[in-house]
Design brief:
The protein has 239 residues and is an alpha/beta fold. Helices cover 36% and strands 17% of the residues. It contains 12 helices and 9 strands. A 6-stranded parallel β-sheet has the order 2-1-3-4-8-9, with helices on both faces. A 3-stranded antiparallel β-sheet has the order 5-6-7.
Length: 239
């Protein structure tokens, strides 16, 4: 039995994994889908000091209090920033890192540095509420990047999306032991949608990597292609 901890991306919450988690649990695995502070059903906890460190601490706390070990830690989108920090702080609990169409940062990088163009588009629609600068509002153009087009999916998603504190995206990731992080096995799952916007030659460069998959989907592949994602994760759990 494997243990999966799934970390959502910006503007989302633990709810976004609802189509994927039954597939993993049906195979007999443990699955945790924490919602990061200030988002989803925890939006009432929004406050000005929420940043990347807050969200890293959220997930480290789940690992500790649920006594999770040998974890397959999955991060989607902004969640890639979070799981990288979690692996640095709790390396002894992590068996595998999975970047699900996610940011893959280096030490001292922020999401603004990793995905500058997308973050500029996100901030163009920012609003300040109760002293918190928020981006990725459900009615903003930035959320079109999620790649959700089927009307039923749109209605389901847009009713649950919440704006995200900008501070999380501009805070640099600070690793205590970058070398130790490289010793944790890592898998990358990309989407055809994201690769279509990547620099020329990116897809060809990824093709030779045995720990890289490409899923024909929009960015929110856990919603639009849950079976394909589950097959990849289950294969990793069986390794």
């Amino acid at each position: 039995m494997a243990t999966y901890v799934l970390v959502h991306g910006g503007g989302h919450g633990g709810w976004c994994w609802q189509r994927l988690t039954p597939l993993l649990r049906a195979a007999g695995h443990e699955v945790y889908t924490p919602t990061l502070t200030g988002l989803g059903e925890r939006a009432h906890l929004l406050r000005p000091d929420i940043d990347l460190d807050t969200h890293i601490t959220d997930v480290v706390g789940v690992l500790r209090y649920e006594d999770c070990t040998d974890v397959i830690l999955v991060g989607h989108s902004y969640g890639g920033m979070v799981i990288t920090g979690v692996a640095d702080r709790a390396a002894e609990r992590i068996a595998h890192l999975v970047y699900l169409d996610a940011a893959i940062p280096e030490n001292e990088q922020s999401l603004v540095q990793v995905a500058g163009e997308l973050m500029a588009a996100a901030r163009a629609g920012s609003r300040v509420v109760d002293g918190v600068e928020l981006v990725l509002w459900p009615d903003s153009d930035a959320v079109k990047y999620y790649g959700i087009t089927e009307p039923g999916d749109v209605a389901w998603m847009w009713d649950r999306l919440t704006p995200h504190p900008w501070k999380c995206f501009e805070q640099p990731l600070r690793l205590k032991d970058p070398a130790a992080l490289t010793r944790i096995p890592r898998t990358e799952v990309h989407t055809t949608s994201s690769l279509s916007m990547a620099p020329p030659g990116t897809a060809e460069a990824l093709a030779g990597n045995e720990r890289t998959w490409v899923v024909d989907s929009g960015h929110d592949l856990m919603v639009t292609a849950p079976t394909a994602v589950a097959e990849i994760l289950l294969q990793l759990g069986a390794d």
